[in-house]
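Summary for the steering committee. One of the milestones for this cycle was to obtain a three-dimensional model of the protein with iron/sulfur cluster bound, which we needed before selecting residues for the alanine scan. The sequence and ligand used are listed below.
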Amino acid sequence: MSRDVFSIDLEHAEAILPRYVEAGPRYTSYPTAPVWKETYDAERFRADLGRSDVAPGDGLSLYVHVPFCRSLCHFCACNRVITRKEELPARYLDSIEREVVAVREAMAVPRTATQQHWGGGTPTHLSPFQVRRLFRAVCDAFPMREGAEVSIEVDPRVTTEAHVEALRACGMNRISLGVQDFEARVQDAIHREQSVEQTAALVEQARRAGFEGVNFDLIYGLPFQTVDSFARTVDTVLAIAPDRIALYSYAHVTWVAKQQRGFERTDLPDPHAKLRIMLMAIRRFLDAGYVYIGMDHFARPDDELARALRDRTLRRNFMGYTTQAGVDLIGFGPSAISELRDAYAQSERSLDAWEAAVLERGLATMRGHQLTDDDRARRWVITRIMCHGEVRAPEYREAFGADFASAYAAELERLDAMVDDGLVERDSDGSLRVTSLGRLLLRNVAMTFDAYLPQQRRSGAQLFSKTV
Ligand code: SF4
């Protein structure tokens, strides 16, 4: 699959793709977060955590959100708190320790974890001592299993050698570096100065310390980017040779990130230029031997994500693509999301509201969703599209005892235009396959099966970023 994406007709892609540029979810969940309601509160989450049909041996994934950053990158739409005050991280640690204990106590059986990921914000905004304290608090409640994947997102501008040592001492084995773009003009516009040397030195330290996997996050579509300028960034990245690369589309979501209004519209590459930048980067990654995992992720052929793609065990959750199929995910910290077998729950977004809720009742749930039978079936279909690029009708029948083509006759009819454009192929039993070109538009294909999207579109609310 990796090579055939490379073999797409770029002229055809440039002609077709602009027609599919529309706002749409990234499907790290289904139903997506805007559907969730406040009626799903901390007590309902507590009840779902306490369900008794979970075995201690079942997999468990943990996410820890550390919201602090030293300065604001102007493209950023993450949930973060820009601060240099020391008392905020100290208070945060007290609260998250309380939250971890509350979740552990709500569970019917003690559980060990198969995966842990720290994101933000900037987790290495915490001092090495604070990193150790937080890791200990999480693992005291949920011991990590042998061979677990333990990963962290870091900002090379604030991550020291002492951090790297502390992270490894905790047992972290994967590290993800925010890079975005190495060009000075772009870095100036996005308010993020980060040299190649600084980034390469951190990779070197991480590899020397024993990290098994290094990921780079890049963004295309930023102000002043051109095909040539981003090609230089891509070539520099390839010379450093991370194990995984995430190539995100810049999301212009000014209703979430007001500071993005500071980007003069004329500074941003137009949709055609943005598309050409993306196709150039994909071409170079594949040429360098990376496998296209899906949407915006690339990995070396021996990486476990690439293996999971080949074995059809790849899944998607709030951390993106994952090898952890069908396991509960518990999120800690402000805005963190938890995904249980039949429910989603999200904690209060602001640091103050989250702290107050944790202090009052241990759990800080502000909204969530209990899945219906229809949600479960559609989630299955959307996950297959996003992770495998196909839906096999016999597998749908086995999972839900129903005929896929009959159950989704209207949706399949709506896919006809994508079939005509060479994005999707259909079999007589209704099975569908996303083509090489269509893999660049997985979100658009999945959107066809989203039962909530028509109403969200009618409401006119700005909820999602653009699909390309
Ligand atoms: S991009 Fe990362 S470092 Fe920059 S403000 Fe956002 S979360 Fe913080």
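Key point for the committee: The first strand starts at residue 60 and ends at 66.
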